[in-house]
Fold this protein.
Amino acid sequence: QVQLVESGGGLVQAGGSLRLSCATSGRTGSSYVMGWFRQPPGKERELLAAISWTGFNTYYADSVKGRFTISRDNAKNTVALQMNSLKPEDTGVYYCSARRTSVWDYWGQGTQVTVSS
C-alpha cells in the first residue's frame, strides 16, 4: 500500500505560479511511476504529467507542456509539480497518483487550484 498526500494548492491570478507537493508513505521502496492529474469542474480527470522511478523519463500533456514541470525526490519520498504561467483553464482539483503497472493504483485526496482571470 502507498499513501499519498497533496499540498500546495490555492488561489492564484492568471500568469502566476504554484508548486504542488505530494508526500508518499508506505511501500515507497517499490519502483512506482508517479503522476499528477487534474479534474476541472464538471469534467473528467486527466493526466497532466508523469515521471519514472529514476526521474529520467517524463511525460506531459500538451496542455501543460512548457509550463509545468514534474520532479521527484526518492530520498524524501516526495513528488512535485511546478506550475508556471497559470491560466484560468488550469483550475481544478489536482491529484497525485502512483502506479507500478498500467493502472494508476493509488490516489491522494486532491488539492484545489483556482486561477482567477
About this structure: The longest strand covers residues 18-26. The two ends are 40 Å apart (CA to CA). The chain is about 0% helix and 55% strand.
